[in-house]
Amino acid sequence: MPRLFGVGFVGDGQLGEIDSCKDIQCLETAVEIDGAPQNIKMIASGVKHSIFLTTEGQMFSVGNNECGQLGRDELLNESFTIAPVVLKGGVRVIQIACGQFHNAAVSDDGRTFMWGSNHTCQCGEDACEKISFPRRIHSLTGIVQVDCGENTTVVLTESSNVYIFGLIKDEHTKPIEIESLSIYPIIQVAAGGTHFAALTASGQVFCWGKNTNGQLTGKISDQFKFEPIAVETLSKVIYVACGSKHTVVLTTEGRVFAFGNNAQGQLGDWRREDVVNVPKIVSELLGTTITGVSCGGRFTFAISNGIVYAFGLNNTGQLGIGNRKNSGAPTIVKDISNVKAVYGGYEHSFFLVEDIADLPIHPVGAVHLFKIPKFLTFNHLRRVYDSNNKIELIGELESVFSSVGCLNGSFLYEDDRRYLLGNTSNGLNLDDVMHAMNLLDYSTSVEQFSDIIISSLESCEIFNFEVNQTIKKEPNLESLRVFFLLIWIPPMAKMERKYVEGFLYRYTHLLCKVADSTGKLFENWFNVLPTRHFNRFSLSLMRMLEFLFPKNFENYPVLRPILKLINRMAAVNRSNEKIPYTHFYLNCLEEKVNVRKDYLTYYLYHNPELTADNIEIPKNPDAFFWFDYPCIMNVAAKSNVLETHSRAAIQESHQRAIFEGLLTTGLAYLNPYLNFTIRRDNIVNDSIAELMNASSKDITKPLKVQFQGEEGEDEGGIRKEFFMLLFQEFLQPTYGMFLTDEESQYVWFSGFPVEETPFRMVGTLCAMAIYNSILVELPFPLALYKYLLDVPFTLEDLLELHPSEGRSLEQLLSYDGDDVEETFMLTFEMSMTVFGHTEQVELKKEGKDIPVTNSNRAEFVELYIKREWKLAMKEY
């Protein structure tokens, strides 16, 4: 059976009637409380009174009643007897809180009751001297938590909204919302003297109010700040407590950090400082796993294995350390053990003692102590879904999807991954989201569920661009999870007009703004998304684009945000090939858009010195061009753009040559063409010689070819034949530059040491062919283009180029015997053959002496593939 002990000031009866201490005003060591209620769940204390809550939901009070804070006989000035606080109608209370002279209670159905002093509206109603009995505050509904400051109150709703009231900014204030917190999954609120704190589901702490002593962290100010400050240096916090002017937090590892006023040592540091505006670890508790913390007015408690450590103000003996001297470092509370919970008041304290078997061995967080807002989990949604209680399921969906804070707290990992917020993680278990939303998607009521989800989301103020500015200006990582969660809602797959033109349109526009403001963060999150989620995200965006494009292909403000997001995802995909690049193609693009004209306009826009007839050039700096989004262009569209670019560049070069002729000679004559005279039987050497004699400006001119000894003007046909014959010759092994694999018929670099010049010439000639709108056959594998894009090669690339080599390596990797060394008889070296000459190349130092075994064969294959490409291109 739990036992209750008290310590500190007893003059007003706040500890109840203690027979052994009738003539004592202050207790320096803990004494068991006579007449305490059974099954105590929690205790809250004011300056001169105390409130007790039992596990059955009944309240009791004791102490001074000059402001009606006992909630019973209004004619009673004080009571040394612990007696019930009666609420009519069978109300079951789940949490209580005390300010200096006022109280608050939350019932299991979300109602809030308050009583005591109300001269600053701290009870949530118009100011009056006092409220002598618990009164329901009708303006507060759906409340899950409450805490009281000296003359203030803070409440948390089931929708993760935070309200404060009382003496705020030196004014008497009725409940007002801290709007910027509405996008966060708040799991606990706490109130100090004139400051407040809120804790999120991923262990972030926000503080606001007055920062006279650093209790918010940051810049010191005696002005009340409504905008919460994120305490950046804290992470993995599971509980927060506030004293009069200090703040204390507990982390998952059982460590304690404190900041604010330390004049009496309440931060656990012997250095008495009025201002500590950065969180400092209570170093003397290191090595001890703290399971709980509590703040009194100007003192602090920490519990570990039933032992209580106390530090701070001790003027009435409230620390229980056997004297009335302040303690600047954690000191063990005397003559008491097996403490499960401790409750600090202003000048007195309580200790709840349990059997040792019931003591916590791990840190106890807010989620275990208080009711929290509605957050969805897959298991919970599955239970409701399987119960066939459709009304309950609809209620859950409406509650959660109408609150951004609740969405950001839903489907989080249940382990420490929920606290990992950074470039590679956001704490969201997208697999659980996927499974949960698939339940709805496969339901016969999916359309009804979709309508409910969308209508609920429409009510979220975050999606009204002008309402919530916080997320657009300085997005916090924990506020952004909602954008990833929503990719799995059923409407993302349906893409019906009522969804796309309403919520989904606004969703993508806001997501684009947020992605722009977070820099590389979203790209990093996209990059670590498993393929199934990355594909869903990209597929949803492409479906939306395909839906909107036919009627909005000239309405650029509508399409630009979606295109920018697709561009971002395509850029991520290029680096790790999560999905085929063809998934980003808008194949209907050329049905509505003249990509040639679009590119030409783009070209002229970025080269303002050029002009063209019948082309209107935009003047605004934010002009729209489809060419800015090349990932959506399929092969045909890209080919048309490339051809247009070539023609535009040729025309530019042609005009420039004529203009330069006018400037230099006064005559409109300067050959606008690059002329090659070539012998058919010496096509390679002649081509190289012509290129060597041409300037960089010359090779941008249209090419005209004349085969020596042959008549005819080059109108395009001779030029085409020239490139075809030239590349056929270059690819022959005679020149030692390239080799053709007999099986795949792909061409690759020989690896033979050849001078750099021929390769530069081949590259230049390739560019000239494209420039002159000539298509030539160059049978290189995909690996060449991966090399140009700096994308790593894989075994699949080797299989494409050299199938026999690739299959051999596949067999090595898939062999399921334990005798790899004896079966394959390989070492860490490879054979390279050029012009009939074979040499052995080591894959690592002393590789010829290292056998390939079951344990190192994967390393062998990796090194083999890397060396294959390096050997082929080592000179270039």
UniProtKB/TrEMBL annotation:
Q: Which Pfam family, any one, appears in the UniProt record?
A: RCC1
Q: Which SUPFAM superfamilies match?
A: Hect, E3 ligase catalytic domain, RCC1/BLIP-II
Keyword Transferase among UniProt keywords:
yes
- What GO molecular function terms would the record report? ubiquitin-protein transferase activity
Q: Which PROSITE patterns match?
A: HECT, RCC1_2, RCC1_3
Gene3D superfamilies per UniProt:
Hect, E3 ligase catalytic domain, Hect, E3 ligase catalytic domains, Regulator of chromosome condensation 1/beta-lactamase-inhibitor protein II
Please indicate if the UniProt record lists Transferase as a keyword.
yes
Query: Which stretches make up the HECT domain?
Result: 695-876
This protein's UniProt keywords: Repeat, Transferase, Ubl conjugation pathway
Record-linked InterPro entries:
HECT_dom, Hect_E3_ubiquitin_ligase, RCC1-like_dom, RCC1/BLIP-II, Reg_chr_condens, Ub-ligase/GTPase-reg
Q: Where are the RCC repeats?
A: 2-56, 57-109, 110-159, 160-202, 203-253, 254-306, 306-355
Q: What is this protein called?
A: HECT domain-containing protein
What is the species of this protein? Panagrolaimus superbus
